TrEMBL record:
<dbReference type="InterPro" id="IPR025799">
    <property type="entry name" value="Arg_MeTrfase"/>
</dbReference>
<dbReference type="Pfam" id="PF13649">
    <property type="entry name" value="Methyltransf_25"/>
</dbReference>
<protein>
    <submittedName>
        <fullName>Predicted RNA methylase</fullName>
    </submittedName>
</protein>
<dbReference type="InterPro" id="IPR041698">
    <property type="entry name" value="Methyltransf_25"/>
</dbReference>
<dbReference type="GO" id="GO:0016274">
    <property type="term" value="F:protein-arginine N-methyltransferase activity"/>
</dbReference>
<dbReference type="GO" id="GO:0032259">
    <property type="term" value="P:methylation"/>
</dbReference>
<keyword id="KW-0489">Methyltransferase</keyword>
<dbReference type="GO" id="GO:0042054">
    <property type="term" value="F:histone methyltransferase activity"/>
</dbReference>
<keyword id="KW-0808">Transferase</keyword>
<feature type="domain" description="Methyltransferase">
    <location>
        <begin position="48"/>
        <end position="137"/>
    </location>
</feature>
<dbReference type="InterPro" id="IPR029063">
    <property type="entry name" value="SAM-dependent_MTases_sf"/>
</dbReference>
Length: 307
């Protein structure tokens, strides 16, 4: 019998098919960002823990410098896959693939770096935040301080109002859409710049729920019928170069149940709430967007862009 967490895991995506992990291997932006960040964060001879190892590729990146890597994976299919893949690669013998629940596992010794990539746009579906917060409490109880370095170090989340086309060869379907970053989509019109609604610093205690209400100045007339969620992962901070190593998730666009007609200069108010690791429908159900002030009644206000 599956317990409650295992049932939720199956529904939300922890037991995703093996081929999904293969697709992640082919995501060059993800792979290059993590390889660069791990190479920076892991010092020679370090001890490393990965929570949610998948194919084991991030643990393998760490093994290039680390003395020992513990790679924890809950899905038995992925445990077999990771062990098979690691035997095919040099330094794979330095990675111990552990079949365990990341909510319960602690390494047998203190570690220097913890890698955790259970990341979905807006911190939905997967348990990134909850797993790390649980790990920090249990690690401090067993080993005391200091805590290891976490990778990613931080996450910046933003939201943006859109006019989104939902015509599929004449078939109208307001569906959730995931879009690659850095591309122009003819059916997507940005109605205002993105606004940051949460910053997660994994080196600090974090809440497991998000509640936000914010305002946007509409930049073009049209119908606001969707909200785009943007998630920028700060994989590593490189202070000596005054820069960061980042990875930007695909954009997630959620349709609004009640679209809003807007004119240039109107002030739009948006609100929503959800919990980290929750389902996409749980966020959709809370989305609200309304015109707070019409352009003729309210002067334009400056809204900072999301970089």
């Amino acid at each position: 019998m599956l317990n409650e967490r295992e049932i939720e895991s199956c529904y939300l995506g922890q037991f995703i098919p093996v081929h999904y992990h293969h697709n992640m291997l082919m995501d060059q932006n993800r792979m290059h960002g993590f390889k660069s960040a791990i190479d920076y964060a892991v010092k020679p001879g370090a001890k490393v823990l990965e929570l949610g190892g998948g194919t084991g590729v991030l643990s393998w990146f760490a093994a290039a410098k680390a003395a020992k890597v513990y790679c924890v994976e809950f899905n038995p299919d992925m445990v077999k896959e990771a062990r098979k893949m690691l035997t095919l690669n040099p330094n794979g013998e330095k990675v111990e693939v552990v079949h365990a629940d990341a909510f319960e596992y602690l390494p047998p010794e203190p570690v220097d770096v913890v890698i955790c990539e259970m990341i979905h746009v807006a911190m939905l579906r997967e348990k990134q935040v909850e797993v790390i917060e649980s790990f920090k409490r249990r690690y401090l109880e067993r080993f005391g301080g200091p805590l290891p370095i976490f990778l990613p170090e931080a996450v910046i989340m933003a939201v943006q109002p859109l006019q989104q086309e939902y015509d599929f060869e004449g078939f109208y379907a307001p569906i959730v859409q995931f879009q690659e970053t850095g591309m122009i989509y003819s059916g997507t019109q940005e109605m205002a710049p993105p606004a940051v609604y949460s910053i997660i610093d994994f080196n600090q205690p974090n809440e497991l729920s998000y509640s936000w209400e914010g305002k946007f100045v509409v930049e073009r007339s049209g119908q606001i019928n969707a909200l785009r969620f943007v998630t920028k992962n700060i994989l590593a901070v490189v202070p000596e170069r005054s820069t960061t190593i980042d990875w930007l998730n695909h954009y997630m666009t959620l349709p609004l149940a009640n679209p809003v007609k807007a004119n240039e200069g109107d002030v739009l108010q948006v609100s929503f709430q959800y919990r980290a690791g929750g389902s996409i429908p749980s966020l959709q159900a809370s989305l609200r967007a309304d015109i707070l002030y019409e352009a003729a009644l309210q002067p334009q206000q400056y809204m900072p862009a999301f970089a």
